[in-house]
Amino acid sequence: MPEFKPIRPDEVVIDLPPATAAGLVFIGRIRSAYASPADCPKNTADRTEPAAIEVDPAFADGLIGIDGYSHLVVLVWLDRSRRDVIVQSPRHLDRPHGVFALRSPVRPNPIGLSVAEVLGREGCHIRIRATDFADGTPVLDIKPYLPRIDAVPAARTP
Amino acid sequence: MPEFKPIRPDEVVIDLPPATAAGLVFIGRIRSAYASPADCPKNTADRTEPAAIEVDPAFADGLIGIDGYSHLVVLVWLDRSRRDVIVQSPRHLDRPHGVFALRSPVRPNPIGLSVAEVLGREGCHIRIRATDFADGTPVLDIKPYLPRIDAVPAARTP
Question: Which candidate in A14, A134, B1, B144 could, as Cys together with B69 as Cys, close a disulfide (CB 3.0–4.6 Å)?
Fold first, then answer.
């Protein structure tokens, strides 16, 4: 069990229900320049460090037909996150927020999502422009990014 | 175990590795007009049937601060999907594709993703404009949609 950061005032921790039988398989790993979550950038806009999705060869056939997509949705398992802090007080916000109103890695199911720009692919090694995930983070899924359903540039935020 | 559709020619089934200890918790359920996955629309653009995310009251505090977001990313567990068909031949494509080049519900980790437009919220009941998930589908996560990182309208598809 990793050491967790202290809970801040106003943050709320809950008892999670027991995990279900809905088991996950890891289909690959993130390769990045960041050894641990603490080393990961909050914002990848100007990042130039090498980053890749390394798919396990057992799942290689799953990549057939993927090359025409400029962007992929990557789902990862944030295996070093705690899961029970339901209300959090991030430094950049002036009041506590529920986990479902945050993109925090600390969540009941610590599934990270990012839209990755593809630079190229050599077999099971997909080079991407940047990542905010630590090296070795397990990958759960890769989906083609479909702007027709995934891109909502006019979406409103508070 | 549900009955699965027959495997089409050119489709490929693999032995999945054993599921890991990365257990999931269900934080709610989808409420929709579709009793089973077979009833779900492929395209929700013109759909007007009622649809909602029903968050389990144990996770209610996780919704604090969510109301200013017009769109949410919803991750669900497609609990009635098979998981081992790594190459698939959907009717609308002229050749087989790997699962990671498809948005098929059949995938090693059957996690469904949709960008949902919020119509309103009454406590743990979040009304959304449409869904292509069956009634009762377990919800894994809700994330605020952030157009700055999630919207790539110019993303290319083959």
Answer: B144
B9-26 burial: b if 16+ Cβ within 10 Å, else e: eebbebebeeeeebbbbb
A7 near B CB under 8 A: no
Mean pLDDT across A97-109: 93
Tell me the DSSP string of A27-62: -EEEE-S-SSGGGS-S--TT--S-EEEEE-GGGGGG
Per the CB < 8 A criterion, the answer to whether A27 and A56 are in contact is: yes
Rounded to 5 degrees, what are φ and ψ at A61?
-60, -20
Specify the pLDDT at position A145: 98
Going across the sheet that includes A85-88, the strands are A12-13, A85-88, A97-98
- Please determine, for residue A21, whether its predicted confidence score (pLDDT) is greater than 90: no
> What span, in angstroms and rounded, lies between the C-alpha atoms of A44 and B105?
30
Contact A38, A95 (CB under 8 A): no
Window 91-130 of A, Cβ < 8 Å to B: 95-103, 107-109, 111, 113-115, 117
What is the pTM (predicted TM-score) of this model?
0.89
Please list every residue in chain B whose beta carbon sits closer than 8 Å to the beta carbon of residue A64: 87, 96-98, 101
A17 Cβ under 8 Å from any chain B Cβ: yes
Q: Indicate the pLDDT class of residue B121, thresholds 50, 70 and 90.
A: very high
- Distance (Å, whole) CA B14 – CA A23: 17
Number of A–B residue contacts, CB under 8 Å: 251
- Determine the Cα–Cα distance for residues B30 and B45; give it in Å rounded to an integer: 18
The structural domains of chain A, ordered by start, are: 24-146 (2.40.30.70)
State the complex-level ipTM.
0.89
